[in-house]
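In the design runs reported in the main text, the only information available to the sequence generator was the tokenized backbone. The following block is the verbatim input for one such run; it is reproduced so that readers can re-run the procedure and compare outputs position by position.
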């Protein structure tokens, strides 16, 4: 018997549903993006996101079933993102998943959004199995983790301030590229000079500690931590200086120089951890993993060290429900399902249940 999971994702500005077979095979992956709507405001407006999810969730699910060629009767379980994310947006998906699971008498599986991003790697790489090193780089999170098992993560580092994607979005706005920042900087940077401006690469140095593993929930910091707010400030200061002195700057050059600094930081942190932990497999996850310069630079760095690099196709890097279906299947196989009291948890931590 095949396991067919209907997965739902509404944590931010994409309303998404997918049908995933046996934890790896994506039968459908429907994403209704709200980007055009939020572009008017220069970023995601939570209240508008929630309302749009309510409008879209039913048609998106219907389409996911149709594209997969399955009916309600064929489903084995329902998986849904319950955190982290925007609370109002998460609640739409959670309520919908509960209603479907209750009506159809199916198991309900709450999924951690970041575990979903990591699980996106299993879709197109049947050979990938834990343990492996994974850099999770999304709009709200930047984590360097060792995926010890499908549901067990050792956190080596995380951002102390802005997430990588957040930095892309803020810098894009400052240089007039607008929302969504990541893809626009990626495009503009192709026409720019990455060495035009020397923006800083932040390395976290901690005296007396070369490695550190976080205890669950701890606020400790460590040598694989990230910090992107200094870089963002450096770009803003540069733009201010130009404004005051009348110096002309090229949007493409600032985009390329900023992107080069982020890419260097992400590659450097991952490679230091890979060397210290003797990892031979590195996976990337999250929206920023679709950045073309990062993909190329990380590929080169891994080849130099004889490491194998795994990156999902761009459509599985940014928010989607297929990745939630994969993570849900692993949760379910470990015997974990959720009760009818499942709630949205906007600041759910990685590894927390
Ligand atoms: O993983 P994701 O879709 O949503 C979150 O869970 O946050 O990531 C969205 C982030 C946004 O900050 C967006 O600007 C960034 O991923 N992003 C990119 C690219 N595509 C999306 N950043 C850099 N280059 C890209 N091509
Ligand atoms: Zn995401």
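Verbatim output:
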């Amino acid at each position: 018997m095949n396991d067919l999971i209907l997965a739902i994702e509404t944590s931010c500005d994409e309303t998404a549903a997918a049908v995933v077979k046996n934890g790896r095979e994506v039968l459908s992956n429907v994403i209704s993006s709200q980007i055009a709507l939020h572009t008017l405001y220069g970023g995601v407006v939570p209240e508008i996101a929630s309302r749009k999810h309510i409008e879209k969730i039913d048609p998106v699910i219907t389409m996911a079933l149709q594209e997969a060629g399955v009916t309600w009767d064929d489903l084995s379980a329902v998986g849904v993102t319950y955190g982290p994310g925007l609370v109002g947006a998460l609640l739409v998906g959670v309520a919908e998943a509960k209603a479907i699971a209750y009506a159809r008498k199916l198991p309900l599986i709450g999924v951690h959004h970041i575990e979903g991003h990591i699980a996106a790697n299993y879709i197109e790489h049947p050979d990938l199995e834990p343990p492996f090193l994974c850099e999770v780089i999304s709009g709200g999170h930047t984590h360097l983790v060792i995926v010890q098992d499908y549901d067990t993560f050792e956190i080596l580092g995380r951002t102390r301030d802005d997430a990588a994607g957040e930095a892309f979005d803020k810098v894009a706005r400052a240089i007039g590229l607008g929302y969504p920042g990541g893809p626009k900087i990626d495009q503009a940077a192709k026409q720019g000079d990455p060495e035009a401006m020397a923006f800083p690469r932040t390395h976290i140095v901690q005296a007396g500690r070369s490695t550190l593993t976080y205890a669950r929930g701890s606020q400790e910091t460590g040598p694989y931590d990230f910090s992107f707010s200094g870089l963002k400030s450096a770009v803003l200061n540069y733009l201010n200086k130009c404004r005051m002195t009348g110096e002309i700057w090229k949007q493409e050059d600032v985009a390329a120089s900023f992107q080069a600094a982020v890419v260097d930081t992400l590659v450097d942190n991952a490679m230091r951890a890979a060397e210290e932990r003797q990892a031979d497999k590195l996976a990337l996850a999250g929206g920023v993993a679709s950045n073309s310069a990062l993909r190329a630079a990380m590929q080169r760095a891994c080849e130099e060290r004889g490491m194998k690099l795994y990156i999902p196709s761009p459509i599985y890097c940014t928010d989607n429900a297929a990745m939630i279906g994969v993570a849900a299947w692993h949760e379910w196989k470990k015997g974990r399902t959720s009760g009818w009291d499942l709630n949205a948890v906007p600041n759910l931590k990685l590894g927390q249940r």
